[in-house]
Amino acid sequence: MYNLGDEFLEFHNEKVKLSHSEKQKLRNFKKLNLDRLEAGLNEINEEKNKSYKIVKSYEQGSVAMNTVTQNDNNEYDIDIAVIFEKDNIPSIPLDARKLVADALKRKCTNFAEEPTARTNAVTVWYKDGYHVDFAVYRQYEDYWENTIREHGGVSWIERDPTAITEWFNNAVKDKSPKVEFGATVEAGQMKRIVRLLKMFCKSRLSWSLPGGLIISVLVEECYKSDYHRDDVAFYDTIKAIYNRLQWSLDVYNPIHTNLLLNDKDEHTNKIKRLKEKLEDKLECLDVLFEYDCTEKKAKKAWKKFFKHDYWTYEEAIEKSSNNARRDFAYGTYYLDVDVAVYFQKNGRVPIWGLDYKRNYIMKKKWVRFVAEHNIPYPYSIKWEVYNTGDEAEEKNDMYHVTEGTNLTQWESTAYRGSHELICSVLKDGIVVARKVCEISIA
User: Fold this and answer.
1) Is 31 exposed, middle or buried (0-12, 13-18, 19+ CB in 10 A)?
2) Pairing of strands 77-85, 131-141
3) Which residues pair with 131 in a beta bridge?
């Protein structure tokens, strides 16, 4: 295999691994929102003569496991477990999450969306893409004075909020090559492989692939270490993951090994798509094993795989030749479309400060398009939507059209990817003006 081991490590360190300052920023968000939660609980205690108190909190997820990757649209999530005493929190899990949401609402202002009590956590959304998830736990001592902790989802389920992180860190330590046994690669290779595969999964906006925990479990299960090169370890591991997914798409929780992580069709479909993407992109890497492979060919192959400019080697940037959907207006006709993003359809107040031309729009929001033109009646307006990506394809919603005289059109941000809404004004059946709006959803 053509040796780009040094470049692979540089790519990881400079373009994949999150910088120390960015990680500190995430942890600052954690501390800030924990402080807000505690202040909100204190306010509730004073109003209702209660004594709600967080007895312990833990980082969870990719921040705790240190597998967060650089992401241009700031789609970072910070997972925090907050633990209460069993006798000092509502006994119904939903009520416990509503309590946390209420406390946060009192102290969280100017956010993209107010704190939301979801099925497994309470979420605080930032308009620039960050979000903080508070998982609610309760604890008590059993007959033998063992501390039992339970997570508040649909019901209270016994769970250790630190178990996944400990499992992962131990696996990285045990399985990664060690200097004392002759390794020349940096310590913690398995963790780098996880980050690199996560980077691949996020490399195309239109892709909808598994999240970090499933990726981490698959890497741990299929990891093929290499004592001298990360590029070899990465290739061998993703090839092993592809072969493993050929015989089963099921991925199990590493702590509760009888529980499926893909217990919903949505998650299974993401794993299936990962298998398909790996099959497609592994073919791009075949050139690495040819006897006459050159540095240029090798970098071109890795660029096709990661779709990242780091691997550019005197390669021309592809340009779109699609002129069929360009803006135009005949004569003195004028057409423009005002675009605003809302939390809900027919909302009254748009999300403040969100520029759809420069920023990604979060899923599960609504976009309002309003046509402004000077074309005299009679006329008709055609609203056409061209969707892209795995999720739109899965729902068979790649294109839909609405035609009439309405100047306003609402569309939901249901699918990841880059999409187009085209507003056309027709007079006597002929398009006399057109405006194309490009929307990116993450």
Assistant:
1) exposed
2) parallel
3) 77, 125
d(CA 93, CA 116): 14
Q: Considering only CA atoms, which of 102, 137, 95 is closest in space to residue 116?
A: 102
Give the single-character DSSP code of 10: H
**What are 212's two structure tokens?**
């970090």
**pLDDT for res 317:** 39
- The answer to whether the CB of 135 falls within 8 A of the CB of 60 is yes
Q: Is the pLDDT of residue 293 over 60?
A: yes
**Using a CB cutoff of 8 Å and minimum separation of 24, what contacts does 108-114 make?**
108/33, 108/36, 110/352, 112/351, 112/354, 112/362, 113/343
- The CA distance from 266 to 393, in Å, is 13
Locate tokens 């992109």: which residue? Answer: 281
pLDDT at 441 over 80: yes
CA 93 to chain centre: 26
The total of other beta-carbon atoms located within 10 Å of residue 132's CB is 26
Burial classification of residue 142, based on how many CB atoms lie within 10 Å of its CB (0-12 exposed, 13-18 middle, 19 or more buried): exposed
Q: What is the DSSP letter of 403?
A: E
Q: Are 435 and 337 in contact (CB under 8 A)?
A: yes
Give the burial class of 226: count Cβ atoms within 10 A of its Cβ; 0-12 exposed, 13-18 middle, 19 or more buried: buried
- The stretches of 163-312 forming alpha helices (DSSP H) are 163-175, 189-201, 212-222, 230-247, 265-282, 295-306
Sort strands 335-342 and 366-373 into parallel, antiparallel or unpaired.
antiparallel
Identify whether the C-beta of residue 350 lies closer than 8 Å to the C-beta of residue 410: no
Q: What is the pLDDT of residue 314?
A: 54
**CA distance linking residue 287 with residue 292, whole number of Å:** 9
The structure's pTM equals 0.84
Per-residue pLDDT at 215: 97
Structure tokens at 399: 């294109």
Contacts of 150 (CB under 8 A, 6+ apart): 86, 137, 138, 139, 156, 157, 158, 159
What the block records as the tokens of 62 is 């990719």
Q: How far is Cα 390 from Cα 392, in angstroms, rounded to an integer?
A: 6
Structure tokens at 116: 């939301």
Tell me the two tokens of residue 125: 């959304």
Any long-range contacts for 311-318 (C-beta under 8 Å, 24+ apart)?
311/11
Nearest 5°: phi and psi at 217? -65, -45
